[in-house]
């Protein structure tokens, strides 16, 4: 029994960090949508937010995999996550919507490197016999973050401001799986 629990030490840390980071991502998502709407008053500008990520993915994902294959997944995860935190930190200081979109392009590029790196890293970290259970728990964690994150984001916006929410949403959930 103790060996089964000991085998779950790293996966539990990883699941916890994925859950906390997911909450932070959804807090950020709520805040950035409201910030862009406040800056422009345009629903089309908010829709532009949703176009940037897929467009950047189309332009970058076909070559990020080959870049990631020959480098340390852990280092790529650390660098890109810190880069994402830095760029989110810059958003409240953007003077206009053009700079916000530019920052979002850099965020999407960093995420295009982070996501495949983390998927590969998780596959290397979690033994084959634990993957089904791990994946089901991770799916539950992601779904929970989808509910909890926007609720926290909305509450933070009501209690403070969008800029403050962006700071809390990004720096509160530092990815603890980067310690492995």
From TrEMBL:
InterPro entries in the record: Bacilysin_exporter_BacE_put, MFS, MFS_dom, MFS_trans_sf
Record key words, sorted: Cell membrane, Membrane, Transmembrane, Transmembrane helix, Transport
Topology class, membrane: Multi-pass membrane protein
Subcellular location: Cell membrane
Pfam families associated with the record: MFS_1
Domain Major facilitator superfamily (MFS) profile: 10-180
Transcription recorded as keyword: no
Source taxon at top rank: Bacteria
Transmembrane segments: 12-37, 43-64, 144-167
Protein's UniProt keywords contain Protein transport: no
Name of the featured protein: MFS family permease
